[in-house]
Amino acid sequence: MKYKRILLKLSGEALMGEQQFGVDPKRLEQYAKEILAAHKTGVQISIVIGGGNIYRGLSGASQGMDRVQGDYMGMLATVINSMALQGALEKAGMYTKLLGGLEIDPIAERMSRKRAVEYMNDGKIVIISGGTGNPFFTTDTASALRAIEIEADVILKGTRVDGVYDMDPEKYDKAVKYDKITFREAYEKRLAIMDLTSFTLCEENNLPIYVFDMNKENELAKVVNGENVGTLVH
Length: 234
What we know:
Elements: E1 5-10, H1 25-39, E2 44-49, H2 57-62, H3 67-91, E3 96-100, E4 109-110, H4 113-121, E5 125-129, H5 139-149, E6 154-159, E7 164-165, E8 177-178, E9 180-181, H6 183-188, H7 196-204, E10 209-213, H8 219-224, E11 231-233
Parallel strand pairs: 1-2, 1-6, 2-5, 3-4, 3-5, 6-10, 9-11
Antiparallel strand pairs: 7-8, 10-11
């Protein structure tokens, strides 16, 4: 096993599956299966999920809504997604705890490093909802912050492509995949991996990001075991 403790970052859009909006139960079931396979290797798992399949604060602000209000709405969207994933994981036989940047009794306990680490040490999967709990920050930034707090070995960014390319592989056949790339190179090449705030947090705290295809069967377990299936940003 390559990693002892990970933070898995998933986008809200990934939970839509084949739908145009909301949460696809089949996709949830698939992700629960992948997470279970990884958990069986003995790795400690924390998860942060976006909320873009339900609501984006920035999108609301562009249409005239108050940005702060919109961002809090986006945070609540991440809570809905986190609850959906929690249900799927527990249905698959795993023990979980839902923490949050926003404390919502009786759904989510307030996020604290001590709580999260204790739960993971007990073998539970910790889902951290509600972003950072503050407006103007994305769930990318929340995932970087939480990973640093809990001293994760790496952020595993689950996407629908199998790594980082020099151009969009879904648009360009000649796109070239990187096995490894430094934070500085990614900055200079303007590669859209995570937003600038989260990227800077990771670089300053020597926290690597590993980008891989979450929709490919057993890929998460392969990453945890150290197989080279995606792109390491370091």
